[in-house]
Each structure stands twice: as C-alpha cells, then as structure tokens.
Design goal:
Layout: H1 12-16, E1 45-56, E2 59-67, E3 77-83, E4 90-96, E5 102-112, E6 126-137, E7 140-150, E8 158-159, E9 166-170, E10 174-181, E11 186-193, E12 198-204, E13 211-216, E14 225-235, E15 242-251, E16 260-268, E17 273-275, E18 282-286, E19 292-296, E20 307-311, E21 326-327, E22 334-341, E23 344-351, E24 357-362, E25 378-381, E26 384-390, E27 397-405, E28 408-415, E29 420-424, E30 439-443, E31 450-457, E32 460-465, E33 470-475, E34 482-488, E35 497-504
C-alpha cells in the first residue's frame, strides 16, 4: 500500500503525461555506492511495495509502487520489470499510471485462463490487474478496488470502464490479493480494512462482481494499520501436506519498530480462514526492520513452491535513505514451505540466490579475532553469500561480524542467554534517522539447528537462521563495500563451525 498521503493537490496534467513517459533514464547505470547488486531497484526515483507479482508465459512480472517524477512518495503508479529467473530484472515503462487524480495503490495480477472477465482474445488467456484506486477530493479520501487488463504480456494496460468493481465508500480499504480457487471455480479476494484490523474475503465469478464471504480479525498484533494481506496455500517442507497462510502487514507498531509483517497459519474452507490452535501458528515473516508488504506470485507452475517478495525499507525512515538517483529496493525472493516439529508450526523461507554464485571459498578456518586490524578475518567485496553451521557452541553469544572499518561493523549472531537470534546495526553506519541505528531480534528455538545463511549486498544484510524459520532483513550503509568477515567470540575455545562463502554476480 502506498502509505503516505500527498500534501497538496496533484497536477493532473502532469500525471496524465505518465502514459507516454517511461519513468526511467534511457541509459541507466547501476554502480552507485549503495546500489544493490543482487536485489531489484528501479533505475531512478521512488519505489515501495511490490505489486501484481505473477508468472505468465515464461516471465516473472514485478510491478511496484512507483513515483516516476522523483525520489519521494507521490504520484503513485505501477512500475514494471520482468525476469526469467526471479533475479535478473529488466525494467519496462510505467504499466498503470496515476490518472485523473487517482493514484494506483497496491494490488494483484492474475492470469485469466478461462477469460472469466471477458477481456481476453478468443481462445487466449490474458492478464488482469486488481488494484486499489486512491482519490483525494474536497469531500475526503476514498479507496476503491478496480481492474485493468493487458493483451500483450503486461506491456500495455486498459482500465475497465465499469470501475470501481468494489466500493465501500471508505477512506481505508485497500490492497486486494486475488487468486483462483479451483475447487469452487471462482476468484477469491483478500482485502484489508486497515483501521478495523480485519482482512475481508470476497468471491467473484468474473473479477467484476464481488460477494462478501467472511472477515478474519482482529487477531495477533493490532498496534497499527493492517495492510497488504495475502492468502496462500503452503506445502510442508517434506511435501506430505499443505496448510493455509494469511499474511498481513502492520504499520506502525511492529515489534522491531515501524512497519513489519505477521502471518497466521491455519485452514481455509473456501469461505472462511481459521487460525490453527497449534503452537507457532502466529509469527512474523521477517524479524528485521526492512521487509514490508511482501506478497506472493500468482500463476506459478504447479511444482513450484510459493514465492514471496517484499519492499526492503521501513516507513520510519524510507524517505531519508542516502541513495540516489533511486530510493527503495526489493528483498530477495524466497520460496515458502512450513515445518511442524516439537516446537510447533513455523513458516520456512529459502532465498533464491544460487544462480548468482561464483567463486566459492571454504570458511571453516576463519580466525576468531575480534579486531579488523589483526588480518585474521577474510576480506570480500559485496555482494556475497555465507553459509555457516554451528555445532554445540560453549559460548553464550556467537556469530559473525562484518567490518567496513574499525569503527563500523554489523553483528549477526545467536544469544543463548536471551534465547534470541539478532542483527545489531548500531555501528554499521548510515544513521539516517534516530530509528535507524538499532538491533533486531527473533526468538530462538533450542531444538532447531544453529545454522545461518547471510546474503550481503552493498546496502543490506538478509539473514536466514534455524532452517529458514527465522528471516531477518536489515538495511546497512557501510563506509566501504569491501568487508571483513569474522566469526566471534575471540576466546580460547573457538566455536566449531563449517561453511561456505560465495562471491555473487551482479544482476545488472
């Protein structure tokens, strides 16, 4: 959801120019100091939530909240990029622009295989977008659900003349997540009532007429607005069963501060989502500060696990990040499953990164010196991936430090006393606001392994621990992309660890 409201009146004439504006430089470059090398970012200007993630005829489509005119929130439209592997993205012209004072907020894209909406050419499937239209008038703010369609693989879009297709005459009613229910043979929409802390479910035979089914919530954490819901079925990690998940964003009021995302695991009977009574059925998709409004891809082949992708930022400081000429980036895509063990249920996330691996280095012999000047660490230039497996450590706190110089480092570790996994970026640099220099934590499960996967880019750390049941994403702004990796602590009894380090190829 495009969270901030515009201050002032939008120039509609300028907004209409979006239809012919590509919204990006003709010859973009992707080598600025903090430019992510393995995460998508637009060539220029502001971005926030991913929108309309869909796989269609050999392409993964990433639409995203976008301001084609600057690096601050405003003039919200759908930017567009495509990929064949979820990693290498090619940015295309603006897909659905702001028009007549109505901004284009978050939504879905579906593949209408059977032409239920009547937009596709005869005997052909096509793409249909379902999105929130946000209008500000002298009479107040209004959010409605609207549709548009594309007959050319998402390159151009036509708005439905009968919009809006769903209107509750509310200022806060947004972020439709739409998918096909093959059992009931109709479409299902999960859409947020943010102030009521509810996700409302609707059904439709044709994407135009919608019937209310049920509400879920309030439940879990209700300290802020509920946004960006996503209802999806997730397989178990052993492939023997499935469970339903309802993911919903929270802003502000997340445990780590600002914006964050929670999930509920349970059952969907075609009309109502019911949370499981098992332990672990409520959790957080990401325990870091910087992964918000993640949504899953529609249209994936049947043998693919669901794929989740989010916006790598936080509304506490998103407008202040020290990047140019762009502001905002996406997380890595993660394949989803769930585990059920003695600790209960948990969402499991596996980052999509292996195709970018290049040079491999064994890291089991890393020295445990805590000083970056000792020469005992290993120097590597971002982006890179590290995988470590800790056995039965005697130390109460252990993990990895990433030094950019002696005064700046990021610490990622396990604290057995507090039973927490954590990232401490208080010394990482880039203190863009009082809310930035902080640590983030996640509860440890002592019966799960102490494994750690780190993907480090020029301005971020994404960590996955305890068999992917903990995901933690934090922005960092180090003084140099050349980092020294050191395992800690530096005591007489080194931690027994083994692992691998890969240098990663740039996606640009």
């Amino acid at each position: 959801m495009a969270k901030r409201l515009l201050r002032g009146v939008i120039d509609c004439a300028v907004a209409l120019a979006l239809c012919s504006s590509p919204g990006r430089p003709q010859t973009p470059t992707y080598d600025q100091p903090y430019r992510p090398q393995v995460h998508f970012s637009p060539a220029a200007h502001w971005t926030n939530d991913p929108n309309g993630l869909v796989y269609f005829q050999g392409e993964y489509h990433l639409f995203f909240q976008y301001n084609p005119f600057g690096d601050q929130w405003g003039h919200m439209s759908w930017g567009h990029a495509v990929s064949t592997d979820l990693l290498h993205w090619h940015e295309l012209p603006v897909a659905i622009p702001e028009q007549d004072g109505t901004m284009i907020f978050t939504g879905s894209v579906v593949v209408d295989h059977d032409n239920t909406a009547g937009f596709c050419a005869p005997a052909k499937e096509c793409l249909v977008a379902i999105y929130t239209g946000h209008s500000e008038t002298p009479h107040g703010v209004r959010q409605t659900q609207n549709i548009a369609y594309s007959l050319d693989k998402g390159r151009t879009w036509t708005r439905y003349q009968g919009n809006p297709v769903l209107d509750l005459h509310l200022a806060d009613f947004r972020d439709p997540s739409v998918s096909w229910d093959p059992a009931a043979h109709h479409w299902i929409m999960a859409v947020s009532l943010p102030k009521e802390h509810k996700v409302r479910l609707y059904s439709s035979p044709n994407l135009k007429q919608w019937t209310q089914l049920s509400d879920f919530g309030p439940a879990g954490d209700t300290a802020g607005d509920w946004e960006c819901p996503d209802l999806l079925r997730i397989p178990s990690s052993n492939g023997k069963e499935n469970i339903w998940a309802l993911k919903v964003g929270l802003n502000p009021g997340a445990p780590q501060g600002g914006s964050g995302e929670q999930y509920f695991l349970g059952n969907f009977d075609g009309k109502t989502f019911t949370q499981s009574s098992e332990r672990g059925s409520h959790g957080w998709t990401n325990y870091g500060k910087d992964d918000y409004c993640a949504i899953s891809f529609n249209g994936l082949p049947k043998d693919e696990k669901p794929v989740l992708l989010g916006w790598m930022s936080n509304w506490q400081y998103a407008a202040k990040l020290p990047t140019s000429p762009w502001r905002g980036q996406m997380s890595l895509p993660r394949r989803l499953s769930f585990i059920r063990d003695e600790a209960g249920l948990s969402l499991k996330q596996d980052p999509v990164i292996a195709p970018l691996r290049e040079k491999s280095v064994e890291v089991s012999g890393l020295s445990l010196s805590a000083s970056p000047d000792s020469g005992n660490g290993r120097s590597v230039r971002a982006p890179f991936e590290v995988q470590l497996q800790f056995g039965h450590p005697a130390a109460q706190a252990f993990g990895v430090k990433l030094y950019s110089d002696e005064q700046h480092w990021t610490e990622i570790g396990f604290d057995q006393n507090k039973k927490e996994f954590y990232i401490d970026r208080t010394h990482s640099g880039g203190n863009v606001s009082p809310d930035f220099p902080t640590g983030t934590t996640a509860p440890l499960v002592t019966t799960r392994p102490y494994d750690l996967t780190l993907i480090v880019d020029r301005s971020s750390v994404e960590a996955f621990a305890q068999d992917g049941t903990i995901a933690m994403t934090d922005l960092i702004f180090p003084s140099s992309p050349n980092l020294q990796i050191q395992i800690f602590p530096a005591d007489a009894k080194p931690i027994q660890s083994e692992g691998q380090l890969w240098e990663l190829k740039s996606i640009w």
